[in-house]
Amino acid sequence: MSEAKTSILGHLRELRNRLINSVIAIAVGTGVAFWKYSWLIDKLQSPAPENVKFIYTKAAEGFSVSMRVSFIAGIVIAMPVIMYNLFMFILPALHTREKRVVLLILPWVLLMFFGGVLFGYYVLLPPALNFLLNFGADVAEYMLTLGEYVGFVTRLLLIVGLAFELPVVTTFLVRIGVVSHRWLANKRKIVIILSFVASAAITPTPDAFNQSIVAATLIVLYELSIWLAWLMEKRKKVAEST
Known about the structure:
With 242 residues, the chain is mainly alpha-helical. The protein has helices spanning 3-35, 37-45, 61-90, 96-134, 146-163, 166-175, 181-186, 188-202, 208-241; strands at 53-55, 143-145.
Protein backbone atom coordinates (compact mmCIF):
# COMPACT_ATOMS: atom_id res chain seq x y z
CA MET A 1 0.00 0.00 0.00
CA SER A 2 1.40 3.40 -1.00
CA GLU A 3 2.21 6.10 1.52
CA ALA A 4 -0.54 8.37 0.10
CA LYS A 5 -3.21 5.66 0.57
CA THR A 6 -1.97 4.96 4.08
CA SER A 7 -2.21 8.66 4.90
CA ILE A 8 -5.76 8.90 3.49
CA LEU A 9 -6.87 5.83 5.45
CA GLY A 10 -5.35 7.30 8.59
CA HIS A 11 -7.30 10.53 8.10
CA LEU A 12 -10.50 8.57 7.49
CA ARG A 13 -9.99 6.55 10.67
CA GLU A 14 -9.32 9.76 12.59
CA LEU A 15 -12.50 11.30 11.14
CA ARG A 16 -14.49 8.20 12.06
CA ASN A 17 -13.23 8.26 15.65
CA ARG A 18 -13.98 11.99 15.99
CA LEU A 19 -17.49 11.47 14.62
CA ILE A 20 -18.10 8.56 16.98
CA ASN A 21 -16.97 10.66 19.96
CA SER A 22 -19.30 13.47 18.89
CA VAL A 23 -22.26 11.13 18.36
CA ILE A 24 -21.73 9.54 21.78
CA ALA A 25 -21.61 13.01 23.37
CA ILE A 26 -24.85 13.99 21.61
CA ALA A 27 -26.52 10.74 22.70
CA VAL A 28 -25.51 11.31 26.33
CA GLY A 29 -26.61 14.95 26.15
CA THR A 30 -29.95 13.95 24.61
CA GLY A 31 -30.52 11.41 27.39
CA VAL A 32 -29.81 14.00 30.06
CA ALA A 33 -32.08 16.54 28.33
CA PHE A 34 -34.92 14.00 27.93
CA TRP A 35 -34.90 13.53 31.69
CA LYS A 36 -35.90 17.23 31.95
CA TYR A 37 -37.82 17.60 28.68
CA SER A 38 -40.93 19.08 30.34
CA TRP A 39 -38.80 21.81 31.96
CA LEU A 40 -37.15 22.58 28.62
CA ILE A 41 -40.49 22.83 26.80
CA ASP A 42 -41.83 25.08 29.55
CA LYS A 43 -38.82 27.39 29.12
CA LEU A 44 -39.40 27.55 25.37
CA GLN A 45 -43.05 28.44 25.98
CA SER A 46 -42.24 31.18 28.50
CA PRO A 47 -41.61 34.02 26.00
CA ALA A 48 -45.00 33.45 24.34
CA PRO A 49 -47.98 35.66 25.32
CA GLU A 50 -50.30 34.22 27.96
CA ASN A 51 -53.30 34.24 25.63
CA VAL A 52 -51.79 31.56 23.38
CA LYS A 53 -52.87 27.96 23.88
CA PHE A 54 -50.62 25.15 22.71
CA ILE A 55 -52.23 22.02 21.36
CA TYR A 56 -51.34 18.65 19.83
CA THR A 57 -53.00 17.62 16.56
CA LYS A 58 -51.36 14.21 16.09
CA ALA A 59 -51.26 11.13 18.27
CA ALA A 60 -47.46 10.97 18.50
CA GLU A 61 -46.82 14.72 18.46
CA GLY A 62 -46.21 14.94 22.20
CA PHE A 63 -43.48 12.31 22.03
CA SER A 64 -41.93 13.70 18.82
CA VAL A 65 -41.77 17.22 20.26
CA SER A 66 -40.17 15.93 23.45
CA MET A 67 -37.56 14.02 21.44
CA ARG A 68 -36.89 17.01 19.17
CA VAL A 69 -36.35 19.35 22.10
CA SER A 70 -34.19 16.77 23.88
CA PHE A 71 -32.09 16.19 20.75
CA ILE A 72 -31.49 19.91 20.18
CA ALA A 73 -30.62 20.39 23.85
CA GLY A 74 -28.36 17.34 23.60
CA ILE A 75 -26.43 18.99 20.76
CA VAL A 76 -26.06 22.15 22.84
CA ILE A 77 -24.84 20.15 25.84
CA ALA A 78 -22.40 18.23 23.64
CA MET A 79 -21.17 21.36 21.83
CA PRO A 80 -17.86 21.58 23.77
CA VAL A 81 -17.07 17.96 22.85
CA ILE A 82 -18.13 18.48 19.22
CA MET A 83 -16.00 21.61 18.84
CA TYR A 84 -13.03 19.93 20.53
CA ASN A 85 -13.15 16.95 18.16
CA LEU A 86 -13.60 19.21 15.14
CA PHE A 87 -10.60 21.34 15.99
CA MET A 88 -8.47 18.34 16.94
CA PHE A 89 -9.23 16.82 13.53
CA ILE A 90 -8.15 19.91 11.56
CA LEU A 91 -5.28 20.82 13.89
CA PRO A 92 -2.60 18.61 12.22
CA ALA A 93 -3.18 20.40 8.90
CA LEU A 94 -2.43 23.83 10.38
CA HIS A 95 0.86 25.61 10.90
CA THR A 96 2.18 26.20 14.42
CA ARG A 97 0.94 29.80 14.53
CA GLU A 98 -2.49 28.78 13.23
CA LYS A 99 -2.70 26.01 15.84
CA ARG A 100 -2.12 28.54 18.64
CA VAL A 101 -4.84 30.77 17.20
CA VAL A 102 -7.32 27.90 17.00
CA LEU A 103 -6.68 26.89 20.61
CA LEU A 104 -7.13 30.50 21.73
CA ILE A 105 -10.44 31.08 19.94
CA LEU A 106 -12.02 27.71 20.82
CA PRO A 107 -13.51 28.94 24.15
CA TRP A 108 -14.78 32.09 22.43
CA VAL A 109 -16.58 30.04 19.79
CA LEU A 110 -18.65 28.45 22.54
CA LEU A 111 -19.15 31.65 24.56
CA MET A 112 -20.31 33.69 21.56
CA PHE A 113 -22.70 30.96 20.42
CA PHE A 114 -24.31 30.64 23.83
CA GLY A 115 -24.32 34.44 24.14
CA GLY A 116 -26.20 34.69 20.85
CA VAL A 117 -28.76 32.10 21.96
CA LEU A 118 -29.34 33.99 25.22
CA PHE A 119 -29.67 37.28 23.32
CA GLY A 120 -32.23 35.71 21.01
CA TYR A 121 -34.17 34.23 23.92
CA TYR A 122 -34.28 37.26 26.21
CA VAL A 123 -34.10 40.20 23.77
CA LEU A 124 -35.36 39.19 20.34
CA LEU A 125 -37.90 36.43 20.97
CA PRO A 126 -40.32 38.15 23.41
CA PRO A 127 -41.16 41.17 21.20
CA ALA A 128 -41.24 38.99 18.08
CA LEU A 129 -43.69 36.52 19.63
CA ASN A 130 -45.72 39.34 21.17
CA PHE A 131 -46.21 40.87 17.72
CA LEU A 132 -46.91 37.62 15.89
CA LEU A 133 -49.20 35.99 18.43
CA ASN A 134 -51.16 39.10 19.40
CA PHE A 135 -51.75 40.35 15.87
CA GLY A 136 -55.33 39.46 15.03
CA ALA A 137 -56.08 38.19 18.56
CA ASP A 138 -59.20 40.41 18.61
CA VAL A 139 -60.59 38.40 15.69
CA ALA A 140 -59.73 34.84 16.73
CA GLU A 141 -58.05 32.95 19.54
CA TYR A 142 -54.60 31.55 18.84
CA MET A 143 -54.31 27.78 19.21
CA LEU A 144 -50.80 26.88 18.09
CA THR A 145 -49.45 23.36 17.69
CA LEU A 146 -46.54 22.84 20.06
CA GLY A 147 -44.45 21.19 17.34
CA GLU A 148 -44.75 24.19 15.02
CA TYR A 149 -43.92 26.61 17.83
CA VAL A 150 -40.89 24.66 19.08
CA GLY A 151 -39.51 24.37 15.54
CA PHE A 152 -39.89 28.11 14.99
CA VAL A 153 -38.27 29.11 18.29
CA THR A 154 -35.31 26.71 18.10
CA ARG A 155 -34.62 27.67 14.47
CA LEU A 156 -34.56 31.37 15.35
CA LEU A 157 -32.28 30.86 18.36
CA LEU A 158 -29.88 28.75 16.30
CA ILE A 159 -29.61 31.43 13.58
CA VAL A 160 -28.95 34.18 16.13
CA GLY A 161 -26.38 32.03 17.93
CA LEU A 162 -24.50 31.44 14.66
CA ALA A 163 -24.65 35.16 13.83
CA PHE A 164 -22.78 35.88 17.07
CA GLU A 165 -19.82 33.89 15.73
CA LEU A 166 -18.96 36.77 13.37
CA PRO A 167 -16.30 38.38 15.63
CA VAL A 168 -14.68 34.99 16.25
CA VAL A 169 -14.49 34.15 12.54
CA THR A 170 -13.08 37.55 11.57
CA THR A 171 -10.59 37.40 14.46
CA PHE A 172 -9.32 34.05 13.22
CA LEU A 173 -8.99 35.37 9.65
CA VAL A 174 -7.04 38.39 10.88
CA ARG A 175 -4.72 36.27 13.03
CA ILE A 176 -3.78 34.04 10.10
CA GLY A 177 -3.32 37.05 7.81
CA VAL A 178 -6.27 36.57 5.45
CA VAL A 179 -7.92 39.95 6.16
CA SER A 180 -6.98 43.18 7.97
CA HIS A 181 -8.89 45.77 9.97
CA ARG A 182 -8.61 48.22 7.05
CA TRP A 183 -10.15 45.68 4.69
CA LEU A 184 -13.00 45.09 7.15
CA ALA A 185 -13.51 48.84 7.63
CA ASN A 186 -13.69 49.40 3.87
CA LYS A 187 -16.54 46.87 3.68
CA ARG A 188 -18.55 48.66 6.38
CA LYS A 189 -21.17 50.20 4.04
CA ILE A 190 -21.80 46.89 2.33
CA VAL A 191 -22.11 45.13 5.69
CA ILE A 192 -24.63 47.70 6.96
CA ILE A 193 -26.83 47.09 3.92
CA LEU A 194 -26.47 43.33 4.20
CA SER A 195 -27.26 43.52 7.93
CA PHE A 196 -30.68 44.99 7.20
CA VAL A 197 -31.27 42.46 4.44
CA ALA A 198 -30.27 39.63 6.78
CA SER A 199 -32.42 41.03 9.60
CA ALA A 200 -35.44 40.96 7.31
CA ALA A 201 -34.74 37.28 6.61
CA ILE A 202 -33.92 36.32 10.20
CA THR A 203 -36.64 38.29 11.98
CA PRO A 204 -39.99 36.51 11.85
CA THR A 205 -41.94 39.79 12.11
CA PRO A 206 -42.36 42.46 9.42
CA ASP A 207 -42.22 45.41 11.84
CA ALA A 208 -39.26 47.75 11.62
CA PHE A 209 -38.57 47.72 15.38
CA ASN A 210 -37.63 44.04 15.66
CA GLN A 211 -35.75 44.10 12.38
CA SER A 212 -33.79 47.14 13.55
CA ILE A 213 -32.78 45.30 16.74
CA VAL A 214 -31.33 42.42 14.71
CA ALA A 215 -29.66 44.72 12.17
CA ALA A 216 -28.13 46.88 14.91
CA THR A 217 -26.82 43.76 16.66
CA LEU A 218 -25.15 42.51 13.46
CA ILE A 219 -23.60 45.93 12.84
CA VAL A 220 -22.29 46.13 16.42
CA LEU A 221 -20.80 42.65 16.05
CA TYR A 222 -19.07 43.72 12.85
CA GLU A 223 -17.73 46.90 14.47
CA LEU A 224 -16.46 44.73 17.33
CA SER A 225 -14.72 42.57 14.74
CA ILE A 226 -12.98 45.63 13.26
CA TRP A 227 -11.88 46.79 16.70
CA LEU A 228 -10.52 43.35 17.59
CA ALA A 229 -8.70 43.18 14.26
CA TRP A 230 -7.09 46.58 14.89
CA LEU A 231 -6.11 45.55 18.41
CA MET A 232 -4.47 42.33 17.24
CA GLU A 233 -2.56 44.08 14.46
CA LYS A 234 -1.32 46.67 16.96
CA ARG A 235 -0.18 43.98 19.39
CA LYS A 236 1.54 42.14 16.55
CA LYS A 237 3.49 45.27 15.55
CA VAL A 238 4.56 45.86 19.16
CA ALA A 239 5.71 42.24 19.47
CA GLU A 240 7.71 42.46 16.24
CA SER A 241 9.40 45.73 17.27
CA THR A 242 10.63 44.33 20.60
